[in-house]
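so my prof wants the structure for this chain in the tokens format not the other one, which i didnt know existed until like an hour ago. anyway here's the sequence
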Amino acid sequence: MKPAENKQQGNETLITEFILLEFGAFMQLQVFLFLLFLVVYIVTVVGNVLIVALVVANRHLHTPMYFFLGNLSCLETCYSSTILPRLLAGFLTGDRTISIGGCLTQFYFFGSLATSECSLLSMMSYDRYLAICKPLHYAALMNSKFCITLVAASWLGGFLSIAILIFLMSQFTFCGPAEIDHFFCDLTPIIKQSCSDTHVLEVTAFIHSSVFTLPPFLLTLASYVCIISTILKIPSSTGRQKAFSTCSSHLIVVTIFYGTLVLVYVVSGSDALRDLNKVFSVFYGVLTPLVNPLIYSLRNKEVKKAVRKAALRFLGFDKNTAISR
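here's what i got, hopefully its the right format
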């Protein structure tokens, strides 16, 4: 670090770098943690990229539901790539320093993608609501133009909204302590490093959460209340099972996402559970992008069928040769 005297803060010094403590308390497990997170990152990227490739290549998956799924997988790939490569580099080199600009950049992409995911998941739930509760109007309402508009709004909304927070944070002076007890740059740890007045930023962050997190969650909740109510009214058990199977994967993903979100930003905020924040954050920022493609590939018949078809093509088999044999 290169401290500089802060004339406005008396004896305090300005800092130009942060030190991410990461998992320094487990020094004896550094090699194990490096290999673990490396495997998680590889599986996450391969799994999500595979889903994107399947959605693009397979014409049977050119539907609104899989269009949203492809965007979710693309988002998850970018999401994990904002955290894990920097973490892996820290394990490998032992250098845990990160510049203030680098820290704000990491938080910008992390926050933008998390915000976009909230919107995208709510759109996926609305898609399932229309498919199950309004089947006769589904094709007319969920057309290609409308789907593209929804997805573009989720991506742009996430990146533009977080830019406001980054602008406010860029005006801060940071006087330490320079150590961030986390494995990536999140909002609260950065605020703790500031010696400026953070009231405006905290109010803005609260408004941001109220606008870009709460409404998507409420829309998702309302959609599934209607979906479950409609499914329960289906007379046959086979019909209920078939209807629920079309949204069960997304429901699991939504539960994991918002469940870990609450653990990180609500429950772990208490003094008793503050030390578990890193553990909760691993579930939220690392494991969630990993399990999403696994859930969709293991529970979705169309995706499993597309995977088998792609595997046969890769091995040199096609439908005709399979039949002839």
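also thought this was worth mentioning. The two ends are 68 Å apart (CA to CA).
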